[in-house]
Amino acid sequence: MTAKLQLVDIKKKLRGRQVLDGVDLDVAPGQSLVVIGGSGQGKSVTLKCALGLMKPDAGQVLVDGAEVTRMPREIRGRVMKKFGMLFQGGALFDSLTVWENIAFRLIYADKVGRKEARDRALATMRKVRLAPEFADVRPIELSGGMQKRAGLARAIIAKPDILFFDEPTTGLDPITADAINDLIVEMVKEIGCAAVSITHDMASARKIADEIAMLHGGKIVWRGPAAQIDNSGNAMVDQFIAGRADGPIQAVV
Amino acid sequence: MINPFAPVGRAVLGILREIGRFSLFAGRSAASVFSPPFFMGQFARQSLQIGYFSLPVIGLTAVFIGAALALNIYVGGARFNAESFVPNIVVLGITRELGPVLAGLMLAGRVSAGVAAEIGTMRVTEQIDAMNTLSTDPFKFLIAPRVLAATLTLPLLVLVADIIGVMGGYLVAVNSLDFNGATYLRNTLDFLESQDVILGLVKAAVFGFIIAAMGAYQGYNSQGGALGVGRATTNAVVGSIVLILAVNYLITAFFVE
Ligand SMILES: Nc1ncnc2c1ncn2[C@@H]1O[C@H](COP(=O)(O)OP(=O)(O)O)[C@@H](O)[C@H]1O
Ligand SMILES: [Mg+2]
């Protein structure tokens, strides 16, 4: 079976530092992969390369088996239709209302009429349990948790094949974070899509992952089923999930 | 050994690289104006924001400059017993030079900074990335409407500035310099040639493009949080002012040839 998404030997240098030094990853259709790793290890850069928001220096990104990194911009737009992404800070457009944010792709890329787009936005808001009275406010008026819900609604409205999550629980209180985790699991199951999440929150990783991979030093140092994370036999993984400062990983403060 | 020319060389290379990058960006911006999809709603909103809401700034600038120009030309003209040329030189100076240049400079502050801050904030908060993942090209959705709006509305603003500037000169001439109102206006209109106005409007369109494209360029490439957005805003204002003045000279020289 061809992977939904495959990264082959991705390299990326930023500001003179080799952030990614040969990353290999693949996600099967319907599978949920979580990439863990410390801050600044290049988790977000990995996602951006996968999404085509950043061009890797070397390596390939395959979507449904087709190489996409060197595609012309116009065709990339079509590949993007398979993707949905929830950004770390929500990245909601602050000049638009919440429902216009959620329906953005429908209105501006798919040319769906505003009436229908609004109906679909409201239906999606219901799914992520965002009350309809927030449809006409600006994102700035929403709490952090609600912004994540709105961002999630925007990512899933067109039923993508792959959902990407960048630190979905960072900056949320534990209860809200758990609710967002539940929501992610529920939505991924409902749409039947593959999911790639990055996080340093182990509670979140355990909840949403089928498989976990650890990124360190620009490479994937371990990968396995989520259930095996506690018996990985990898000292770096053990140190990371135990949250210890001493071990093979040196904290860069 | 220290080569005293090395820093100068580096600076020149840096400027050349920046000019090259800006040219590529401006080219892509211009191309995105002409290829679908077109976001008419965004264009309408930007025309209002960039054009209509700049009217007060432009009007105030024009009236004061027209008035001051009339006074100066009167004083200068008196040295040659040529006071009667005030209306001719006021209208020439305003339509060919001061109208477009001052409007351009004012909008470099108002519009270029605004565009850079808005797009820069969208960049550092990942809204630009988000737009890409929503299958919408930020060049088409954000940049093309701003560039087109500025390029089309700045000539209209300059037309208004021309009229208000001449009126400013007229008011001073009639009220404090003892000119006859009807004669002043007739001299203005008789002297003015269509190419004077056209030169001003061509400049205005080019300046409008520079202002929006420079703001978008700085904002689009900003990085590093609030600090980066602040730097982008400053660079947009300085960059568009320098470019406007340089291009103003080139266009003028070209028309005079
Ligand atoms: N657009 C960029 N330009 C330059 N450097 C970047 C950029 N994005 C990220 N970096 C650098 O790449 C490294 C990895 O960043 P990131 O992927 O955001 O880490 P994280 O694993 O915390 O998500 C950091 O050192 C960061 O400074
Ligand atoms: Mg990150």
Please name the defining characteristics of this protein:
heterodimer; A: alpha/beta; Rossmann fold; six-stranded mixed beta sheet; four-stranded antiparallel beta sheet; 9 helices; B: mainly alpha; binds adenosine-5'-diphosphate; binds magnesium ion
Uncertain runs of chain A with pLDDT below 50, 5 residues or more? Answer: none
The gyration radius over C-alpha positions of chain A equals 18 Å
| Name of the top-level CATH class of chain A | Alpha Beta
Listing every helix as H and every strand as E from the N terminus to the C terminus, the arrangement of chain B reads: HHHHHHHHH
N-to-C CA distance of chain B: 48 Å
Instruction: Tell me the β content of chain B.
Output: under 5%
Q: Describe the main β-sheet of chain B briefly.
A: none
- Tell the overall outline of chain B: globular
Bound molecules: adenosine-5'-diphosphate, magnesium ion
Helical fraction of chain A equals 25-40%
- CATH topological fold name of chain A: Rossmann fold
Mean pLDDT across all amino acids of chain B:
95
Structure report:
The complex is a heterodimer of chains A (253) and B (257). With 253 residues, chain A is an alpha/beta fold. Chain A has one domain: P-loop containing nucleotide triphosphate hydrolases (Rossmann fold), CATH 3.40.50.300. In chain A, 35% of the residues lie in helices and 25% in strands. In chain A, the strands form two sheets. Chain A has a six-stranded mixed beta sheet, with helices on both faces. Chain A has a four-stranded antiparallel beta sheet with strand order 2-1-4-5, covered by helices on one side. In chain A, a hairpin with a 2-residue loop joins strand 9 (211-216) and strand 10 (219-225). The longest helix of chain A has 18 residues, at 174-191. Chain A is globular, with a radius of gyration of 18 Å. In chain A, 44% of the residues are buried. Chain B is mainly α. Chain B has one domain (6-256). Chain B is 86% helix and 0% strand. The mean pLDDT of chain B is 95. The interface between A and B is medium-sized, with 27 and 16 residues. The complex binds adenosine-5'-diphosphate (ADP) and magnesium ion. Magnesium ion is lined by residues 43-44, 88, 166-167 of chain A.
